[in-house]
Structure formats: structure tokens, C-alpha cells
Amino acid sequence: MFLEFCGGRGREGPEKRLVNFKGTIQTDAYAVYDSLRRQRPTVLKRLGCLAHVRRRWYKAAEESCTEAIWFIGQIRELYRIEDETGDLSDAERKAIRRQKAPACCGVP
User: Fold this and answer.
1) What is the pTM of this model?
2) CA distances from 95 to 21, 30, 82, 101 (A)
3) What is d(CA 73, CA 6) in angstroms, rounded to the nearest whole number?
4) With contact defined as beta carbons under 8 Å apart, do 36 and 18 qualify?
5) Sorting pLDDT into bands at 50, 70 and 90, what band is 64?
């Protein structure tokens, strides 16, 4: 895992850091990352951040969207699974995620 902070919101920082990178990046919804992924679709994949997703559902719940409560509960369950498996190996965590996450989130 690697985290880098850039002082500005321009494209130059991420573009420079990712120029030779091949793989998956986890980012917030900042449009530059999606733009870079579209520019290099065969070598760069992008994953969103669950904390940012949760914030949007939380805001929807505050605005009386009752469906949002279900989604927040599902995210809470995913976080609980992560807490339970924090001390396990990557392979063990993956196996438990595959077993428990679909059950908690209604995924077939």
C-alpha cells in the first residue's frame, strides 16, 4: 500500500506518480483519477473508497431517504467483517469475506 499527498488539486501530481504504474489504485471520487484510467484502460484500474460511498448514503438518510439506512447497515457489516479478520493472513481474510460479505449484502 502506498499513500501520497499532493498539495494541489491539479492533474500533474497523480499523472507524474502514475506514469509508469500498472495495476489498481483506490481513490476518492476526484475526476482526475477516472480521467487517467480512461487514458490507460488496459494498465490502470480504479477502485472507489467505501468511506466516501458511506458518506453519501449517510447524507441521503439525513434527508429522509429511508432506503439509505439499509445501505449504511450493509456497509457496517462489511466493516465488522474487516474488524473480525484484521489479524488473519490475506488468504484467510479473503476466504471469510467471500463467505460472509455476500450473505450480509444480499449478493447471490
Assistant:
1) 0.66
2) 28, 31, 12, 10
3) 33
4) yes
5) very high
Whats the size of the chain, residue-wise?
108
**What does residue 67 show for φ and ψ, rounded to 5 degrees?**
-60, -25
- The model's pLDDT over 7-54, given as tens digits with 9 standing for 90+, comes to 888 888 888 888 899 999 888 888 888 899 999 989 999 888 888 889
- Residue 33: CB atoms within 10 A of its CB come to 20
Q: Which residue has the cell 488496459?
A: 42
Query: Using an 8 Å Cβ cutoff, are 84 and 62 in contact?
Result: no
Side chain identity at 54, as an amino acid letter? R
- C-alpha–C-alpha distance, residues 23 and 37, integer Å: 10
Strand (E) or helix (H) holding 24:
strand 23-26
Dist CA 67 CA 51 (whole Å): 18
Which residue shows C-alpha cell 490502470? 44
- Gap between the Cα atoms of 90 and 87, Å rounded: 9
